Amino acid sequence: xxxxxxxxxxxxxxxxxxxxxxxxxxxxxxxxxxxxxxxxxxxxxxxxxxxxxxxxxxxxxxxxxxxxxxxxxxxxxxxxxxxxxxxxxxxxxxxxxxxxxxxxxxxxxxxxxxxxxxxxxxxxxxxxxxxxxxxxxxxxxxxxxxxxxxxxxxxxxxxxxxxxxxxxxxxxxxxxxxxxxxxxxxxxxxxxxxxxxxxxxxxxxxxxxxxxxxxxxxxxxxxxxxxxxxxxxxxxxxxx
Length: 240
Fold this sequence. Notes:
The chain has helices spanning 3-38, 51-59, 118-127, 187-196, and strands at residues 40-42, 64-71, 80-84, 90-92, 96-102, 131-138, 148-152, 163-169, 176-178, 200-207, 217-221, 227-229, 233-239. By secondary structure, it is an alpha/beta fold. It has 4 domains: 1-38; 41-102, Trypsin Inhibitor V, Chain A (2-Layer Sandwich); 118-169, Trypsin Inhibitor V, Chain A, CATH 3.30.10; 176-239, Trypsin Inhibitor V, Chain A (2-Layer Sandwich), CATH 3.30.10.20. The strands form 5 sheets. A 3-stranded mixed beta sheet has the order 2-5-3. It starts with a helix and ends with a strand. The mean pLDDT is 87.
């Protein structure tokens, strides 16, 4: 076999190997695309289905069933009232589908909680088959701490949710101060100034090698200008 024939044979083998590798690469890319597209499904409509039916409907599409809330509605108990994502939206497998289930028609009237303590309000809600929702607090002069000031839904009304949100008194607003500038003062003077405003020095750190005279305040926590309450403590750094 001449050198030229050997070269042509080698060239044909190389070309054949290239074609086989290219075909394998294209097949792999196609398989990956098919796999990716196969992992995307359309979200079905679950509204009105029972929890068991909705769970099975989602399982058939490789999706997970998650209950995020329960509300009163005219639908039967445990029927799906709302869903996320909405019907028709595409979703990747195996993502979660979040649903809100029905508790049936509202049969419990909202009790009167205003003026009660938080402990009493919790007990009343529990006895009424209701749940404590969001609790917000507000400082109100003259109001007893931990007393319910307002509620949502209001008393003697029907609600679409078993939760009742409350606004609770936090008592009088605590006394607050603006932290004075203490750096540069003598330690004794700084402590006297703090004592006059009702603040207390909790710790003094004596720092060696400072470029100021011994006993001078060179650091403070909280910093100058910080707003602090009357129970706050102060930490000083003092030159030693």
